[in-house]
# Entry
Amino acid sequence: MVAHDPLTFYTNPMSRGRIVRWMLEEVGAPYNTVLLEYGTTMKAPAYLAVNPMGKVPAIVHDGVIVTETAAICAYLADVFPEAGLAPPPGHAARGVYYRWLFFAAGPIEAATSNHALGFVVPEGRDKMMGYGTYARVMDVLEGAVAESEYLLGDTFTAADVYLGSQIGFGLQFGLMEKRPAFERYWSRISHRPAAVRAARLDDALLPEEPPEA
# Structure
């Protein structure tokens, strides 16, 4: 096993950093958490040197900066292969793994964001959109999670962490239709020990609600 320095994880418990927290718990590698706040420390020069976008999550590992949630998940799966969260390079399943990981980062992310904002692709203009239509994305997603226990059959991977989290957020915040296939899939993966640990860690960092008047 290759020795690595503990990585630094920049996050906020009300962000996509929750996905990376889950991935870190699945990997089981030591990490240090740096909690950032929107509009202040997230936009401060010290953090902009890490991520000029001024957004979380981000990690720094062995001097390597990685931003973008899907990229972080893929990176962690590769540098910690002992966790078994990605098919090995050259394996046929690697293509399927990449397919669904980046389907989540592209079509799902864009379609659900636009849907949440009330944006509807004008009739006949879906060819201009990378994802086509929201309805088509949801149908393809349903097919992906309904076929087997995980996206790669009986093998859980980083693609399930990322795509599954998109479904979890979508169901929680009304960004996706509550299709039975989505709910069954999310129930299967969200009860994994690492997912439960990650949720507890992030929930403990949530700001306390102000007392009622």
